[in-house]
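2024-03-11 09:14:02 INFO worker-7 job=invfold-0412 stage=load source=structure_tokens
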């Protein structure tokens, strides 16, 4: 099992996503972490907009694939 260590405090995680989430939240102050990739955001609006990348809820893109 791969171990990912936080460069700031030495805490270890079993997934890169968890480490990213921890780093963004505890060290960078990004209060809104993406559940899908661990990326953090300062505002909820930015997170919601980003989450669309994962959920694919973009009418424009759907039309292209349909
Ligand atoms: Zn840390
Ligand atoms: Zn994401």
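2024-03-11 09:14:09 INFO worker-7 stage=emit residues=66
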């Amino acid at each position: 099992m791969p171990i990912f260590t936080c460069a700031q405090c030495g805490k270890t995680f079993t997934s890169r996503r968890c480490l990213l989430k921890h780093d963004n939240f505890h060290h960078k102050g990004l209060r809104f972490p993406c559940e899908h990739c661990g990326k953090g955001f300062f505002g909820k609006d930015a997170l919601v907009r980003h989450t669309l990348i994962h959920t694919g809820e973009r009418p424009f893109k759907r039309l292209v694939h349909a």
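2024-03-11 09:14:09 INFO worker-7 stage=report msg="The pocket of zinc ion (ligand 2) is lined by residues 34, 36-37, 39, 50, 54 (CB under 6 Å)."
2024-03-11 09:14:10 INFO worker-7 job finished
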